[in-house]
Design a protein that fits this description.
Elements: E1 2-8, H1 19-24, E2 27-33, E3 49-52, H2 67-80, E4 85-88, H3 90-98, E5 103-114, E6 117-118, E7 133-141, E8 148-152, E9 160-163, E10 167-170, H4 182-188, H5 190-195, H6 200-227
Parallel strand pairs: 1-2, 1-3, 3-4, 4-10
Antiparallel strand pairs: 5-7, 6-8, 8-9, 9-10
Helix pairs in contact: 2-3
């Protein structure tokens, strides 16, 4: 069986709905938390698939989170070897940074459900066209050299990119739509919600309305991406 290593930056941001297509593609998923003392010694090149999920921290907050530099160094080695890598939200920003792009505060919170504009309808992201996706971030990134921009939103131009077939970075949270851990997101982010003009009640209602469709589309997206890996 192929191996998939999940890097978890906070306990409540996990692989969620993406687990189903990843396991269906023949991967045995194991995880490592960045707070685990063994994380610094973990080889990130070896797994057949590397998955990096989200988190409330910023890529540029290296002093507050000293493991970021360690992770970026090993991630850059993996990307140089063109090993299959998926990054979501903070994980996507880490991919951008490891490829030499700038990651920075965007000046506006993007929180809530809305669709992304698909810029390449031949990519696996065609499955999520016109489907409201969950967004929750205030940082953004420049497009790395050699990357192909796949999606934008009305708030941030850089919502997804690919580098070749083996690297996919998704700023939006297609994995979230039915996972009850969203309650932890809401509890920890009242300021983010308010800054984006959202309320906990409104976001929970949108989660119930849009979540199942978002998950179905996102699973199809991930399954197609996995099938096309080199």
């Amino acid at each position: 069986m192929k191996t998939a290593l999940l890097i978890r930056h906070v306990p409540h941001e996990c692989v969620a709905a993406y687990r189903e297509p990843i396991e269906a593609a023949g991967y045995d998923v194991c995880r490592v938390d960045v707070g685990d003392p063994a994380f610094a010694q973990r080889c990130l090149v070896e797994p057949d698939l590397l998955i990096m999920m989200g988190g409330p921290m910023a890529v540029y907050d290296r002093k507050g989170h000293p493991w970021i530099d360690c992770q970026l160094h090993r991630l850059a080695q993996r990307l140089a070897a063109d090993r299959p890598t998926l990054g979501v939200c903070f994980g996507a920003q880490m991919i951008a940074a490891a490829l030499g792009a700038r990651v920075y505060a965007g000046g506006q919170q993007e929180v809530g459900f809305h669709p992304v504009a698909i810029l390449d309808d031949t990519s696996p992201l065609r499955h999520v066209a016109h489907v409201p996706m969950l967004h929750w971030h205030g940082d953004t990134f420049d497009l790395p050299e050699g990357a192909r921009l796949l999606a934008s939103s009305h708030v941030y131009a850089h919502q997804a990119f690919a580098r070749g077939r083996n690297t996919l970075a998704l700023q939006f949270h297609g994995e979230m739509g039915e996972d009850p851990r969203v309650d932890a997101w809401i509890a920890q982010g009242p300021a983010d919600l308010a800054a984006a003009g959202q309320t906990p009640e409104g976001l929970r209602a949108a989660y119930a309305d849009h979540g199942p469709r978002a998950i179905a589309a996102s699973r199809a997206m991930i399954a197609e991406w996995l099938a096309g890996l080199e």
